Amino acid sequence: MSAPLIATVAGVTGARGQVSGRRADFPLLAGAPSLHYLDSAATSQKPATVLDAIRDYYERDNANPHRGAYALSVRATDRYQEARRTIARFAGLADPDCLIFTRGTTESLNLVATAWGGANVGPGDEIVVTAMEHHANFVPWQQLARAKGATFRIAPLTSDGKIDLDALGGLVGARTKLFAFPHVSNALGTVNPVREIVALVSERAPDATIVCDGAQGAPHLPVGFDSLGVDFYAFSGHKMCGPMGIGVLLGKRGLLESMPPYQMGGDMIDVVGDEETTWNTLPHKFEAGTPNVADAVGLAAAVDFLDGIGMDRVLRHERELVAIADARLRALRGVTIHGPAPRDRSGVVSFTVEGIHPHDLATILDERGVCIRAGHHCAQPLMRRLDVAATARASFYVYSEESDVDALVSGVREAQRIFGTV
Amino acid sequence: MAAGVPGRDGNAPAVQSASVEALYQELILDHYRKPRNKGPLPGATVSAHLSNPTCGDEVTVEAIVDGGVIRDLRFTGQGCSIAQASASMMTELAKGATIGATRRTRGALERLLRREPVTRDALGPLVAFEAVARYPARIGCVLMPWRALEQALGDPDAPAQSP
């Protein structure tokens, strides 16, 4: 067993299993010792530092930014721009003006589909996605293709839940205008080899714009946007210790500058004439209306929290728990784990139990304080290919501990007893 | 979580325990493992398909309705034990019953799930779903097949077709 995530959490190591987490930093978890929160891929819990940062912003610096007529507004603007710089640094983006604040990954991807797609996709073009997309990185492209008369293609997966790179190589070509794929699968936890995929696609389709859905990437592993090779990368704050309602789109400057705006309103304009309007510079061109400063400040506090641990350690911690959960669930009769081996996954275990529907399993686990997800995980194309209607998904994060795995495994055994399947 | 819902007929509570085992009663598990009237119904005069986009459960109900009576009724689909057992028990209760009586049974089931007063006679074996009232997220699982049947039956005044 390797060292715990944070060895200094006194009284936690040992008492809650061999692998301990940062539970004490999260008020909701600290206040509910018997709760086993295993749905972090849906949304993470929030550390006190994030909650404090949001409150501090409202108590000391709140005003409408970019209006600069008084010192308080200047402070609000400074907090907002400081948050942008902090998050850009965390994501490996040298130019913070190429970080657009959005409501989350879904809005970021819709921004690209609407603004970039509207201006650049036409009849005869091809849009390629993979069979492991979350609906948010599938439906916008499917609908864009339909609206523009473009061809929509879906790259298949291997039997162990990875993108089939040979098949992908055969799908992309000179007509490929856009390729969209996830950094990490939300339903299976598969960590995709981004640089290898980008090299493969760029070689065959040098003009293709490449979009990476980072909703499950940024919370769990280093992003390094400037060296990834993708044109756009999107993630949400709430899955990485930040508040709900804030996320980002990272993009290459040339693309962002050449794209039309996404929404029209205040802040995003330069000069508004009676007939014509010119657009503000980046990033303001894509941030119409009063921005969500408080939650941007909260997300900056969240990345500070994660940086304090180190993203390499975050991933190592999750993989350690996944490996334990994987082995112990596999040891139970009738349990099938979907997706690749733990070394190729982030903190997700997606599984089915013979004779027990995932919703029944979730109800029985809930009764024991274990929160898991049951369903199609907003990935119906993937579920069809796995030939399952639903799976149970347990997902781990920085506060997860071995005791959470214990509760999960004993809950599955209890469900098997109630259903009489063992 | 509240204790089991007390019985409404003055007898002992139907639900003895607040544990999850009250939810998964033997009758429900039996219908889940051995669903009755499951499969397509050749010659069906009415049908309806419902799915739950959040969980992926789906049910198709097919019936032969003649003269205001449900002569035959079968279902297909997949889902959790509660939805499957509910569909199975519904087919047993509604087969041979009038549309009016079937609607009254559904009304009684809804009152049970809302924890409103309801007589045992109106419910029959559906009393097995009493504990579901404590699990708001699962009430829709019980009602989905009944909603599909209601949709299949459509306008109560429409002339019945012969099979």
The class by helix and strand makeup of chain A works out as alpha/beta
Q: Using DSSP, what is the number of strands of chain A? A: 15
Number of strands of chain B: 3
CATH topology of chain B: Sufe protein. Chain: A
Mean pLDDT of chain A: 94
* Assigned CATH architecture of chain B: Alpha-Beta Complex
Biggest sheet strand order of chain A reads: 2-8-7-6-5-3-4
Shape of chain A: globular
In the predicted model, the low-confidence regions of chain B spanning at least 5 consecutive residues are 1-17, 157-163
Q: How would you summarize the topology of this molecule?
A:
The complex is a heterodimer of chains A (422) and B (163).
Chain A: H1 27-30, E1 36-37, H2 48-61, H3 71-90, E2 99-102, H4 105-120, E3 126-130, H5 139-148, E4 151-155, H6 165-171, E5 176-182, H7 194-204, E6 209-213, H8 225-228, E7 232-236, E8 247-251, H9 253-258, E9 269-272, E10 277-279, H10 293-309, H11 311-330, E11 335-338, E12 348-353, H12 358-367, E13 370-371, E14 373-375, H13 380-386, E15 391-395, H14 402-419
Parallel strand pairs in A: 1-13, 3-4, 3-5, 5-6, 6-7
Antiparallel strand pairs in A: 2-8, 7-8, 9-10, 11-12, 12-15, 14-15
Chain B: H1 26-33, E1 46-51, E2 58-66, E3 69-78, H2 81-94, H3 99-113, H4 120-123, H5 136-153
Antiparallel strand pairs in B: 1-2, 2-3
Helix pairs in contact in B: 1-2, 2-5, 3-5
Describe the 3D structure:
The complex is a heterodimer of chains A (422) and B (163). With 422 residues, chain A is an alpha/beta fold. Chain A folds into 2 domains: 23-33 and 310-419, Aspartate Aminotransferase, domain 1 (Alpha-Beta Complex); 51-307, Aspartate Aminotransferase, domain 2 (3-Layer(aba) Sandwich). Chain A is built from 14 helices and 15 strands. Chain A has helices spanning 27-30, 48-61, 71-90, 105-120, 139-148, 165-171, 194-204, 225-228, 253-258, 293-309, 311-330, 358-367, 380-386, 402-419, and strands spanning 36-37, 99-102, 126-130, 151-155, 176-182, 209-213, 232-236, 247-251, 269-272, 277-279, 335-338, 348-353, 370-371, 373-375, 391-395. In chain A, the strands form 4 sheets. A 7-stranded mixed beta sheet of chain A has the order 2-8-7-6-5-3-4, sandwiched between helices. Chain A has a 4-stranded antiparallel beta sheet with strand order 11-12-15-14, covered by helices on one side. In chain A, strands 1-13 form a two-stranded parallel ribbon. In chain A, strand 9 and strand 10 form a beta hairpin. Chain A is globular and about 75 Å long. The two termini of chain A are 31 Å apart. Residues 6-16 of chain A have low confidence and may be disordered. Chain B is of the alpha+beta class. Chain B has one domain (21-153): Sufe protein. Chain: A, CATH 3.90.1010. In chain B, 36% of the residues lie in helices and 15% in strands. Chain B contains 5 helices and 3 strands, in the order αβββαααα. Chain B has helices at 26-33, 81-94, 99-113, 120-123, 136-153; strands at 46-51, 58-66, 69-78. Chain B has a 3-stranded antiparallel beta sheet, covered by helices on one side. The termini of chain B are far apart. The interface between A and B is medium-sized, with 19 and 22 residues.
